[in-house]
Amino acid sequence: MALFSAVLPPAAVVESLADVVGGLPRTAGVRWSPPESWHVTLAFYGQDEATARAGWLRPRLAGMPAPRIRLEGAGTFTRVLYVQVHGEGIVQLGQAAGAGDADGGRAYLPHLTLARTRAAVPPELLRLLAGYRSETWTAREAVLMRSARGAGGTRYAVVERFPLSQQAR
After folding, report:
1. For residues 128 and 24, is the Cβ–Cβ distance under 8 A?
2. Cα distance between residue 125 and residue 61, in whole Å
3. Which of 10, 73, 141, 156 is most deeply buried (CB count within 10 A of its CB)?
4. pTM to 2 decimals?
5. In the predicted structure, residue 153 carries a pLDDT above the cut 80
6. In this model, does residue 102 exceed pLDDT 70?
């Protein structure tokens, strides 16, 4: 079981992106993440105890402003296809949640993973997603999530929710 913090996109954004992803060519060696698992990772904690991590997060996220964000364009990591996340406050939220702490201080890049591949991400998929842009939304909460790998793939579950401040910036 691994723990991470995340922001969950609203149903309308998931539906919009699912419509686009559903129209993309299915290419051998590409494993698509199901829409119900889509999330914007804030920070990854690995194998950790959920109660302790929630206690660590609570004061770090208390009073953090709710970011206004949108999904736009696409990018790749090694064998990962993702949609980019843009907007005001998402990087600061990721940093408050500990992004970069466990991976040598590497800069936080907000993204939503769509697929993993056996080889390089097919350039056609990147090109076809380049023009995607979701509606902008306010992320009213961050969540601590647990992931567990099983025979049917990775399953995600929300462990705790952390409300974000709705006060004007």
Report:
1. yes
2. 35
3. 156
4. 0.91
5. no
6. no
Q: What's the average model confidence in pLDDT over 8-29?
A: 96
Residue type at 139? Answer: A
Domain boundaries, position 83: 2-163
136 vs 61: CA distance, rounded Å: 21
Q: Which ranges of the chain would DSSP assign to H, the alpha helix?
A: 11-22, 50-61, 90-96, 123-129
Beta bridge partners of 138: 68
Instruction: Provide the 10 A C-beta neighbour count for residue 101.
Output: 13
CB atoms within 10 A of CB 142: 28
CATH number of the domain to which 47 belongs: 3.90.1140.10
What average pLDDT does the segment 33-59 reach?
95
